[in-house]
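Re: orotidine-5'-monophosphate structure - here you go.
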Amino acid sequence: MNFFDKLIAAIERNQSLLYVALDPNCESLSFNTDESVLTVEQWQNRLESVVDQTVDVVCSYKLNLGFYQALGWQGMQLLEQVLQLIPSNLPIILDAKYSDLNSSNIFARLIFEQWKIDACTVSPYTGLDQLTPFLVYPGKAVFVLCTTANPSATILQEYPTSEQSLYLQLVQETQTWGTPEQLGLEVGMMADTLARVRKTAPERLILLEGDTSEENDLMEESELTPILAAGLNENGEGLLLPVPHCLLREENGNQAVTEFRDRINKIRTQDVQGSPTCNLWLPDICFLEHQPHRDLILQLYDIGCIIFGEHVQSSGEVFPYYVDLRRIISIPQVFHQIVSAYAEILEGLEFDRIAGIPYGSLPTATGLALRMERPMIFPRKEVKSYGTGRLIEGHFQVGEKIVVIDDILITGNSVMQGAEKLKSAGLEVEDIVVFIDHGRGVMDKLKKNGYQGHTVLTLAEISETLYQANRISSQEFDLFKESTEPTLS
Ligand SMILES: O=C(O)c1cc(=O)[nH]c(=O)n1[C@@H]1O[C@H](COP(=O)(O)O)[C@@H](O)[C@H]1O
């Protein structure tokens, strides 16, 4: 099971957003000062008892590599033993803050393949190139270090100003580095910074981190409530909090952690019940009407595929926005998801070849042809007066059935012109698959012309999702609404 699904299942099963920092750290986990120098065997017993106390009340464990490294080669053995103590249905996060020009590849292989760790904290300063070795592992995740609460870090994190700070630019930049299932954010325990990160990235999972005393401060209502208000998403989720270590030193650690978990859940419930986006309540769990492509829609917006301002359309009309799906080719993670979404539709259709409408849909059609191992052709936009002078590029047999791929349907004219070219060469075209149906009755128009249209998304779904996620204002939402009303015949 991948990291994200394992985490969500554990959160639901144990009704908990808590993780335990499971480290051979004298300051946090030894019972008294006499025990401050424990042997590796004693540490193993101590960490095993922490797992036993918490296994049914937390959603994950976080291991800080530094504490294990500090014990030398025996520490590495301890780490491997501790990994075995954690049940396989609870995800493990390795806190390594890793990323290095030469060794990211081998480090990612060690932790994900050999140690079977589910997620790792990473440092963003070497850029996307050095995070890619972590991101290419299917089902694994990274948490990018954004902020810490160290006072001396403020001068860097909040450069040049606290409102337009470096860490917020980092949060924005990482929106295109990976999906919310693949990439979360690591944030220090400061309610104001946490709130800014949450506002900038409503869909991202946040790993809250602090030192032992900051963790213990969470026991105070006056610390806990603002942190939850700042870091939870609109569903009262999306935040992983550390178990304060003082609870693990209590005689009945399980009861102490359970009570703390219940306090958090009570605050979550109060916060979310006030939210108008929650449609249905069952005990402890809020079910939203989930838009299956929500994360993809938010990423499309974040990478600039939806632009506001007056734009002339191919039909000559002027809309107050433009949807530019051509950008997706430059962001492989998003492009990959888009091809998958088209493929889901194509899997239910019968066809001999895939045709893309130039130019915007040629990369997508190529991606689909490779993914589905089906041949591709395309109708030329303009016929060359030299060379072969072909109207259709690629090989085909007369009478074959073609599924046509396009990016967005507005009037439907460009896709139908492309389909007519294919038909004039003796091919059969019935199915047209697009990523966005602008609305306005264009699907009916296709039907009247003998085509069956299929779409991944409608513009109405996109605008609704962006509005719910606070990406667009109510005025921008209304602009979409007005221009998607049915007008075509
Ligand atoms: O030019 C457009 O009308 C247009 C507007 C827009 O917001 N996004 C967009 O991609 N387009 C282009 O318009 C084509 C579809 O327009 P119709 O032929 O009117 O359906 C798309 O394939 C794009 O080339």
